[in-house]
Write a structure and sequence with these properties.
Length: 330
């Protein structure tokens, strides 16, 4: 039986809060991507998340909180948290902090740290307040596949393994949150780029933000398991291109699809040309990325080509996701 999709009426929210309080799973909308939520303080409930997603146990979960009081139930804040919270919360920023012992091992995959974020989506905020519990929630997709940005995407990927989906409409950002490890506030480390950039973090923190390179994470795989190289992947092969030109398209088979950043002047009359934002807006491109990849993944194309976008603002996160989606299978 498929999952039931609920609209955010007060009555439905009360019902779903009850499901969470009793140890159940609910797929929830956030401003980034949809998440699959459970009570973060209930190890048994969190184990079900891993089962439903077929997620390996060594990939820790992000915990969502309503406010800083709730954060103090799971993590030890420092000065940097207060600064970043004032600037960016509620919003698409996840902080890796020292965990406190109430957090079950299954949530953090046994790490001494816990990833926390205060989401901005109004329905999830209401749900967090109603159940008054921190909610562990990874993206609501089968492990390794593209993140869902609508309730229908969640239904398509997990509908047979979960019972409840809260529909909050299409996600505003469409890209997963920025993750930064600030356990040492003088040496913050960016673990995953998102719409909040390292440059923005640096302006608020007053110190440089290092990027976790693959080399560094290869030496320390347990510290940033989410940086698995291949991730967010369509089933069809995907190749990134610095630029897509009409000549390239003409040389290729007609059953290959081309994803441009903006609408090319030569697109008209060609059925295999797609774009992330007609007018070249990075925010819109971010919002469309996973939805378009998903649609094309089911479109019978033999191969997808995606053009890298300008490397600033949300563009850094878009290019990161495109490169991961294009990484060789293995
Ligand atoms: O926008 C988001 O962050 C969405 C929504 C639902 O909030 N969530 C999300 O979760 O993208 P997920 O599980 O797909 O990605 C979270 C990543 C994981 O890959 C995990 O490795 C990393 O966060 N992570 C979680 N806890 C960590 C920790 N203590 N240290 C380092 N990385 C951690
Ligand atoms: Mg994910």
């Amino acid at each position: 039986m498929p999952a039931q999709i609920y609209h955010g009426t007060p009555q439905n929210l009360r019902r779903l809060a009850q499901v969470l309080r009793r140890g159940g799973l609910v797929a929830v909308p956030t401003e980034t991507v949809y998440g699959l939520a459970a009570n973060a303080l209930d190890a048994k409930a969190c184990r079900q998340i891993f089962r439903a997603k077929r997620r390996p146990a060594n990939d820790p979960l992000i915990v969502h909180v309503a406010d800083l009081r709730m954060l103090a139930r799971i993590a030890a804040p420092n000065d940097a948290v207060a600064k970043l919270a004032r600037a960016f919360w509620p919003g698409p920023l996840t902080l890796v902090l020292a965990r406190i012992s109430a957090v079950p091992d299954v949530v953090t995959a046994g790490l001494p740290s816990v990833a926390v974020r205060m989401p901005a989506h109004p329905l999830l905020r209401r749900l967090l307040r109603l159940c008054n519990l921190p909610l562990a929630a990874p993206s609501a997709n089968p492990f390794g596949y593209l993140s869902p940005t609508t309730a229908e995407h969640v239904q398509a990927g997990l509908g047979r393994s979960i019972a409840h989906i809260l529909d909050g409409g299409p996600c505003r950002h469409g890209l997963e949150s920025t993750i930064v490890d600030i356990r040492d506030p003088r040496r913050p480390v960016l673990l995953r780029p998102g719409v909040i950039t390292a440059a923005q973090l640096r302006r608020v923190l007053g110190v440089a933000v290092r990027t976790a390179t693959r080399r560094r994470t290869a030496r320390l795989p347990a510290l940033a398991p989410g940086l698995l190289h291949r991730h967010y992947s369509p089933r069809q092969p995907l190749v990134t291109k610095p630029r897509i030109t009409a000549a390239m398209v003409e040389r290729a088979h007609s059953d290959e699809a081309w994803i441009c950043f903006r609408k090319p002047a030569w697109a008209d009359g060609r059925k295999n040309i797609f774009w992330l934002s007609a007018r070249g807006d990075l925010r819109e491109a971010g919002r469309q990325l996973f939805a378009l990849l998903r649609r094309l993944d089911h479109g019978g194309w033999r191969r997808l080509h995606a053009e890298l976008v300008p490397a600033n603002g949300a563009g850094l996160a878009i290019n990161d996701r495109l490169r991961r989606a294009a990484a060789p299978r293995g």
